[in-house]
Amino acid sequence: MDASESAVRAYSFGLDESYRPLPSLYLAFLLIWFVSTCCWTFNTYRNRHFQTNNLQWTLASVPLIKALQLSLSFLFWYSCFYLQRCSLWMSFGVYVTGVLFQTASFISFLLISHGYCITCERLSVNERRTTAALGCIFYLTLVGYRASVPYFAVLLLLNYFFSFYTIFYHISQNLSALREQLTFIEDEDVHAMHDAVYMKYLMFKKFQGAMHIVAMAEIVIYINMDNSSENYWLRLLVREWAIFCIFLYIGWTFRSQDLAPRFSVMPALKSKREIIIPPIYSIVSLICA
Asked: Is the Zinc keyword given for this protein (predicted)?
């Protein structure tokens, strides 16, 4: 049972004293996510000259939505316990922002797995359409599941399976392409690009490990569906810390920074026929010019 569902339940059937720690808990995490959002935005703006940071600006929406969800959760529970007013609309806002947060997270993972602003400057039309379609399907399936619509639990499970398969497939493709580029660099003795390509390879390896943790965490969450109110605050604490730590690791990996020289040398679009040549050719052209 997530925050929005517990909110609706509390509103409908009366407050349970086991939920009393929730206002303080939500306020603490709100401050953590708010500070993280400010730090991420400031760092992205400060390092905007070092790399193409369209990905970083896109990722900024994730902690922003999370902070909004936590603020609504705090206001709802605070008003319930201390003002004796439980707003159904505010609980609905918690529900909507929770779904938006998960959808935005999923789309961000898809963008990273495609190599957006890492191995290519922008996605192709088909990649953008596929990402948008998967995001919409994920959103609608999650809404149906949260609303307890019959059979949507199965649909959500299938959606998760296909989504993670897609993410891991694209990560493997990028890792394979980067390994080929590293081999090409060593064989052709074009060492000017080695550090940049190797850094991209390490970033994808770290992201691959993080996505394995995310997949396992989702499995644990949906297997252990304990709807009891006892120790709900403790389960919430563990879940929120896990979410924050995962996003902190991914955010730190893909933050705006002064990266290796020529990190931003990349093809405009990924080419299935010429995976190796574009970035290498680009830097050789710059050197020879």
From this structure: no
